[in-house]
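Thread: "does anyone have the structure for this chain?"

Original post by V.I.:
We have the sequence but no experimental structure in hand. Need at least a predicted one for the grant figures.
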Amino acid sequence: MLIGRMTAGLLSLVAIAAPAAHAELVVDDSGLVRAMLADGEYVPALLDIWIPAQGWSTRATLRDLEERDVERHAQGGSWTGVLRSGGGRYSVNVTISEAPDGAHWLATVECLEPGDVEGVHLALVLPTEAFGGGTVAAPGQDEAAMPARAPAEPHFY
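Reply from O.Q.:
Generated one for you, tokens below.
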């Protein structure tokens, strides 16, 4: 499956998800968002890129980035590297920046060598205790309501 070039991103995740006076993303060395620090308290969160092999037998995530290059600065940073899945290679760039309306997270995935994959998926996992009933939006998309309670089966789109 040739992915070509696609962009997945979430704008104002912190501003929408954590209505705090000041909030920031907690990011590891692979660009994976692990939590948010809002008013001095850590709130668990997961924001990741998944590239599953056909049949979801395995999946590559930001933790698997090869040829990793990290640039951090006071207002965010960028993480670049290569993911391998289903025999293919995919260039990944994650950029995080802080703005007055919250933290902006943007990921770009480009196919270097096509593989037998299910696609490129944006994984957003948030606790309903902290985010239930809130809203989330992607660039160019309408806001979507977050469920007030966790569903019995998580939904993957």
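V.I.: this helps a lot. The chain has two helices and twelve strands.
O.Q.: and The longest strand covers residues 41-52.
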